[in-house]
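Reviewer 2 asked us to include a model.

Predict the structure of this chain.
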Amino acid sequence: MKKTILFCLMNVMVFAWQVRAQESESFGVEWNGYLQTDNRLRLNDDNDFSWHEYRLDLKTEVNPSEKARFYSEVWLRSLGFSAVQNSADLINKDKVSPLNLDFREAYVDLYGFLSDNLDLRIGRQRIAWGTADKLNPTDNLNPNDLEDIWDFGRHLGSDGLKASYYLEDYTFSFIYIPIFTPAVLPRGDWASALSPSMQLPSELTLRNSTDTIVMPKNNLKEGSKIGMKVSKNILDYDFSLSYVYGRDDLPLARKVTFTPTGITPGEVDIESELIYPRMHIVGMDMAGAIASVGVWAEAAVFFHKKVKMTTDLSALGMGEQESIALNDKPYVKYVLGADYTFENGIYINGQYLHGFIHERGKDNLEDYFMFGLEWKLLNEKLKITPISGGIEIKDFKDIENNYALILSPGIAYHPVDNAEITLGARWIEGKKTTTFGRMKDNDELYLMIKYSF
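Predicted model (C-alpha cells):
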C-alpha cells in the first residue's frame, strides 16, 4: 500500500513539474523512460519459467536554472512469481502478484558551487568508474546489484556527495558515502554459484546450514566510504587514477560452527558468521582508439586486512581450528579489451578479464574471455547476434577439468521506432569447479520486449 501511495505521489509531482514547465520556459522538465518485459524459460524436462519481470522505468530531469539540475530514476516492477502457499495468502496482493518499487537515483546537481570550477551532486547516485565493457574492477563505490546475474555491471545507487573540480584539463572528483549498503545477491539458483557449498569430511552429513551477518555500525567510522579520482585526456586517450577506501560489499565467512543434531550419527548443523571486510583499492584505467579500433584497459589493486577463519568443532570434541579466510597480500584484477565496427554493419567486441566480481585473493582469481559479434541489417531494424558469450578458465594447467563455456546467441527486431523485440538463448557447459560450470543445467530461452518513450 505504501509503495502504491508513493508511486502516485511521484506521478503527481511529475505532472506538477510538467504544468510548471508549460507556464515558464525557464523551468525545463524532461520526462522519459521505457517499458520492458523479460521472460525466461528453462530448457530442461519441466520447462519451468526461471525469470518473470515487467518493468516500468521512469526518468525525470528538471532544469530550473543554469546553476541547478534535478534527476531521478525509478523502477516500478512486477518481479517474480506468485508466492501463494495457502488460502489466506490469496487476500495478499503482494503474494498473489508481487510488486517492487526501486529508487535507482534521485539527486540534485549544483553547478559553480562557491567557485566556477566546482560542481556538487547530492543525493542517491550511480557513480560509475572504469572504461571496460560492463565488467569494471575499479567500479567499487556503489554496491553490486547481482539480482539478475546476466545484467553485468548493474549497481545500486548510493546516498552521498560527489564534488567535481576542474583545473585546466584535469578533473578531480571526491565522493563521500556515509552509510554502508551490501550487494544484492542473485535470485534463485544463481546464489549458490557465487558461494559454492562447503566440502564436508566423508564421515559428516549436513542437515541445515544457517548464517548470521555482522553488519558495520551506522556511524562515520564503520559505515562510511570515500573515493577520489583524477582524470585527464592525453594524446586523445582518456586516463584516470582512482582510490577507494570502503568495504567489500559481498560477505565473507570468518567463523563456522558445527553442531551435531543428535538424531543421526555424523549428521550436523552448520552456522556461519559473515562480515564485510574493510579494504583499500587503487585503480587506473585508459580508453582510446588505435586507428579505427577502440581499445581500453583497466586495473585495480586490492588491499585487505588479514581475516582469520575459526572453525568451531567443540561440540564434536575437536576444539577450534584457525585458518586464513583472506590474507593481507595485495592482489590485482584487470581487464583488456577492444572493439571494431566494419563497414557492412558487423560489430565485434572482445575482452579479457582477470578476476570476477566475487573473487578475492591472488590465488583465487580466475580468467575470463568475453566475446561478441553483432550484425545490423535492414537499416538497423534487424540485429543478429550469432556469437556472444564467454570462456572461464580456473586453471590453465588443467583446462579440461577447470573450464566453463557460455554461449548466448540472439536476434533483435525493431518493428517501429523505439520498440525492440529480442529472442535469445543461453547455453552453459563446463566443470563444477568453475563459477558458471556449476550452473550448466540452467540453460534457458528468453524473450524481451522493450518500448522507450
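The longest strand covers residues 49-65. The chain is about 10% helix and 55% strand. We have added this to the supplementary material.
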